[in-house]
Amino acid sequence: MPAIVETVDLKKSYTAVEAVRGINLYVPEHSICAFLGQNGAGKSTTLRMLMGMIRPTSGTGRIFGLDIGSERDSVRIRERVAFVAEDKRLYEYMTVAQIVRFTRSFFPRWREDLERSLLEQFDLPLERKIRKLSKGMRTKLALLLAFARGSDFLILVEPTEGLDPVAIEQVLQIIVSLVADGAAVFFSSHQIAEVEQIADHVVMIDCGQIVMDAPMDKVKSEYRHVQAVLSGPSDAHDFQLAGIERVYCDGRMVSLIASRNVDAIVEHVRAKQGSNVEVAPLSLKEIFLETVKGRP
């Protein structure tokens, strides 16, 4: 599919610290792409480069074909992208109604139908000052201002932060409906169960480098946990096979994390006189933890 976001060897350094070390992103149209990583992995730096808030040290990046390193193009990108940052920063002195009217005036494609619907769904108090809103209400308001813009691309950071379970489900359903209407979403979240629920593509970043970039259905269908009891003690050197990501040996017990090639791995375990071989799927949270575990 055509790309909304495409980067090539994108890097950002701060003096002696290389925050982003040559990432290649491809976010297709009409997709929900999750961007996962630990704190300090390079997510925020990457997003700030995409939005033109900081300039890359080297490499290239484009959104809607516009150069993220160009001052003129970065302004045009911000006009077309709905961005919700982690801090959900808003004008504290305004009321909810005032900031909705104020934001609406800047966006000719503003969806008044969605504005009305979200005000009702989120139960936002129109006359209350923003500085008096709870954390959850601030998140809802920031999302409303992003969702109603009529943007073709949304970048969301922790979009369900501070929300209760009912509101979380509402937000996830709205994201899915926006994509069904033709938008694309690139979002970062530590709530991996929510990511697994709606994302169709997943990108994982660790230490400034992409360590996974794959369709969600492929990740969930191919990653497996293989466990067996061997006839005698073994170590990791006995299980050097394509697709094995991690090996854990404890006496006669062996536990393997496989990203592909599962049938061949199971046969290899059996050839090592393995018995009681068990193969189980992994959740996205388990896959994430295994992917970033032990990396330098």
Offer a quick outline of the entry.
The chain is α/β, with parallel strands linked by helices and 296 residues long. 34% of the residues lie in helices and 30% in strands. Strand 13 and strand 14 form a beta hairpin.
Task: Tell how many strands the DSSP assignment holds.
Answer: 15
- Report low-confidence residues grouped into runs of 5 or more: none
Average pLDDT level: 92
List the secondary-structure elements in sequence, H or E: EEEEHEEHEHHHEHEHEEHEEEHEH
**Lateral arrangement of strands in the main beta sheet:** 7-8-9-4-10-11
Largest sheet: 6 strands, mixed
Number of helices: 10
Coarse shape: elongated
- Give the N-to-C terminal Cα separation: 34 Å
Helical fraction equals 25-40%
Radius of gyration: 22 Å
Q: Strand pairing plus helix content: what structural class?
A: alpha/beta
What percent strand?
25-35%
List keywords for this structure.
296 residues; alpha/beta; 6-stranded mixed sheet; 5-stranded antiparallel sheet; 10 helices; 15 strands
Structure description:
With 296 residues, the protein is an alpha/beta fold. It has ten helices and 15 strands. A hairpin with a 2-residue loop joins strand 10 and strand 11 (209-215). Helix 4 (112-122) runs antiparallel to helix 5. The chain is elongated and about 70 Å long.
